[in-house]
Amino acid sequence: MKSRSLLLYVLCLLPFLWPVLRGAAYPFIEKQILFEAGGGYPSIRIPCILALPDNTVLAVAAGRSRVSDWADIDMIMRRSGDGGKTWGPVTVLADAGTEVADNPVLIWDRDTKAVHFLHQVDYARVYHMQSTDGGKTFSPAVEITPQLGAFKGKYDWTVIAPGPGHGIQLKNGRLVVPVWLAAGQPLASGHGRAHQPSVTASIYSDDHGKTWQCGEILPDTLKNMNETVAVPMDDGGVMFVIRNGEPGAYSKAISRSPDGATGWTKPELNQELYSPICFGSALRISGAPDKSRILFCNPDSRVNLRPNRSGSGRARMNLTVKLSYDEGQSWPASKVIEPAHSSYSDLAMLPDGTILCLYENANKYVSLARFNLEWLTDVRDSLSK
């Protein structure tokens, strides 16, 4: 009788002990609020996160004087030295006076050990900054818009913006940043310009951010392609995961390039990547010679707030992270990070394999979720394997 009770006890514990026995970590997810509306910023939006090899984490968001994209907006930042467990105070990274400073992009340059930061001002000018001390300080902003003049000859834009979210560095050292261009007319309010119609392209640097060049504009086959995230591919190419306004589609589009600048394929809708017309993040967490693993994060809610009207009436909630093992062809694993109102997000990964997701909550908060692959896959997969 005692042996039977002991056996039952062991069997009950087995699901909890199995990750340890097989060399995997125990599944976990932790959440904390990093930015909260108030103190001059009634709205907090547009998260961007970057993890460095020494466990430093940089988190950037847009502190807005009001919800509008054309508000007085500052780029604000917090810095962590312990993998996102504890954080320093909120600091202002970019302030354009009463103009917009938004659309943050962070990139880690593994060759120079520098952090690159790009953003736009007034949706008319793009700036580059750099840190050589892990984000403790940044160089003065340098406008790079004149270097992007080639776009004007191909698309007469009135709005330009990078990202948002992290950029990437390819195996050959190239820095790649998605940008979107819009030919919008002045708004009826008299302040700002419409963000439609729009197209997507890339900018890149082959000299560690000293100069920037225009990549090709993607084939304009879907309506209003704009906010995009880049993923480095195992073959050395780049995959773009693209927000778009294709009528009735409500899914991300995918385009691929052999070098992050040229030869972009026709953007194709991916029905597995549902999107309520919202920015979503993607991140490679492993690749050759290891198993290919790419994450995607986006609100995955099918609730229609305006069933009798066209447009982006789908609710931004149910923030979901998905996993692909075949270079973005399919996404067999998924978990909900935040079931409530949630919108834009950005992804990063610590040296120990902990995944970071910085995401919006109801325009009032930007929160951080820390989790591992064991949580996402119900212990079916582990980076420690």
UniProtKB/TrEMBL annotation:
GO biological process, one term: oligosaccharide catabolic process
InterPro entries: Sialidase (IPR011040), Sialidase_fam (IPR026856), Sialidase_sf (IPR036278)
Gene Ontology molecular function: exo-alpha-sialidase activity
GO terms for cellular component: cytoplasm; membrane
One Pfam family from the record: BNR_2
UniProt similarity note: Belongs to the glycosyl hydrolase 33 family.
Protein name (record): exo-alpha-sialidase
Organism: Termitidicoccus mucosus
Lineage, top ranks: Bacteria, Pseudomonadati, Verrucomicrobiota, Opitutia, Opitutales
